[in-house]
Amino acid sequence: MAxxxxxxxxxYKLNFGQTGKKLNNHFYEKVVQRELKKSPQSPNLYNMLxxxxxxxGDFARAIEAYGESIQLAPHNPHAxxxxxxxxxxxxxxxxxxxxKALILAEKAVALDQAPHVWDxxxxxxxxxxxxxxxxxxxKSALESAKKNRSYYEKQLKKFTLALxx
Length: 165
Description:
Mean pLDDT: 88
Low-confidence stretches: 3-10
Shape: elongated
CATH architecture of the largest domain: Alpha Horseshoe
Helix content: over 70%
């Protein structure tokens, strides 16, 4: 019985714990890398790699992967938006670049008016110090949001407060 409990605990940890996440991410990265060897001109594979690196906190490699995706497909709103978000909000300030974030976010929103893309543009304006435009973009995000509206309302409040200061 103790063996079954131990095995069950190990299985749970591998499926839902940090160890399992690391193993899954490592496996996922290897699969994407293998596919890139077969299809090196695939911007979607670079998007996947960028997303994985961003999720893992490997910001330098995320920037590289998104950059490769954008080079292959300059009108790729996913890569433009995610790279803009990284430059605007990265927890490691060495990777923040408000100017690049704004350029990329403006390109992304011209291609895709999804709420999360408007939110990236709003955040990019915010970190660039243009609170008025951040508020406008945030309103667009909230207006187009069908779900997760509380997040966009919170963002709108943040930009409104910044403008009032």
